[in-house]
Write a structure and sequence with these properties.
The chain is α/β, with parallel strands linked by helices. Helix content is about 40%, strand content about 20%. It folds into three domains: about 70 residues, Winged helix-like DNA-binding domain superfamily/Winged helix DNA-binding domain (Arc Repressor Mutant, subunit A), CATH 1.10.10.10; about 100 residues, D-Maltodextrin-Binding Protein, domain 2 (3-Layer(aba) Sandwich), CATH 3.40.190; about 100 residues, 3-Layer(aba) Sandwich (D-Maltodextrin-Binding Protein, domain 2), CATH 3.40.190. It contains eleven helices and 14 strands.
Length: about 300
């Protein structure tokens, strides 16, 4: 059966975004072109692939099956075609899913230097703490802590080892006392983090004599916004907890101080990860090389 590859690319966008208009925007075509492409694919296969409503699109059972069976193969084929067809500097849309706590990747210079070096590449960065299959969602790569990356992915270090810290203002500690052991946190006002509504606040993790343990601090303030955590701590709102890179500028200026350092050990840092493919698109290869060079320059 002969099927136009472009029809499958349109179907992939619709399957990922569940919306014809969003798919049209991603592919830079009209909404009617998306609708016609889906209809042509359905006519070719002789089966309904999507269910349309006024606001979104849902895949039928046949559509779900087609997407599962073609997503990874289509990504590999597209990468191979890009590698074969592109002459000159890398170009194209590069979609990256990045955890919100990857400060080194998100702080600006790494991204700014990359787009300056590769003006033909359009970088689309989605900041999300949701865990999902990047191939299934249509991303070229992701950035996360190494300990949560799937084993079948290729991972390139973005940072060296990382460490979590507990921080507060000197004034808060003067008024409420400095915790000497993690269990003392239960008597403090804590500012906690959760990845999404309805999810329990993150438990603060420590080590003692080589043994890992965590503390449920029952935070009085909980949010999924790291910037709000920082601002609240700077205002004397309590003790908060996160990756040291996030708080480093405030620690260096003395606005925040760390506590419980003896109970916080280093762990593997952040990695750029991507599917194990024989043919990488030049745009992704360029980002991988850029990340390696950027990290080496800062070691």
């Amino acid at each position: 059966m002969d099927i136009d590859l472009n029809l499958l690319k349109v179907f992939e966008a619709v399957a990922q975004l569940h919306n014809f208009r969003a798919a049209a925007d991603r592919l830079d075509i009209s909404r009617s072109a998306v609708s016609q492409s889906i209809r042509r694919l359905e006519d070719t296969l002789g089966v309904s692939l999507v269910q349309r409503s006024t606001r979104n699109v849902r895949l039928t059972e046949a559509g779900e099956q087609l997407y599962r069976q073609t997503a990874e193969a289509l990504a590999a084929l597209t990468g191979a075609l890009d590698a074969a067809a592109i002459k000159g500097p890398p170009r194209g849309l590069l979609r990256i899913a990045v955890t919100s706590i990857a400060e080194r990747f998100l702080d600006g210079p790494l991204i700014a230097d990359f787009v300056q070096a590769y003006p033909g590449v359009t970088l689309d960065v989605t900041v999300t703490d949701e865990e999902f299959d990047i191939v299934e969602r249509g991303f070229d790569a992701g950035v996360r802590l190494g300990e949560v990356i799937e084993q079948d992915m290729i991972a390139v270090p973005v940072t060296d080892e990382q460490r979590e810290v507990a921080v507060a203002t000197p004034d808060y500690l003067a008024r409420h006392g400095t915790p000497l052991h993690p269990r003392d946190l239960t008597g403090h006002r804590c500012i906690g983090w959760r990845p999404a509504p309805g999810v329990a606040p993150y438990r603060w993790e420590f080590t003692e004599q080589g043994r890992a343990f965590d503390v449920a601090v029952a935070p009085q303030i909980t949010t999924n916004d790291m910037l709000l955590m920082v601002r609240t701590a700077l205002a004397g709102g309590g003790i908060t907890f996160g990756i040291e890179d996030t708080f480093r500028p405030y620690i260096e200026r003395g606005e925040l101080v760390t506590v419980l350092d003896d109970y916080l050990a280093p762990f593997p840092g952040f990695f750029l990860y991507y599917p194990n493919r024989h043919n990488l698109a030049p745009k992704l290869r360029a980002l991988i090389d850029h990340v390696r060079e950027y990290r080496n320059a800062r070691l």
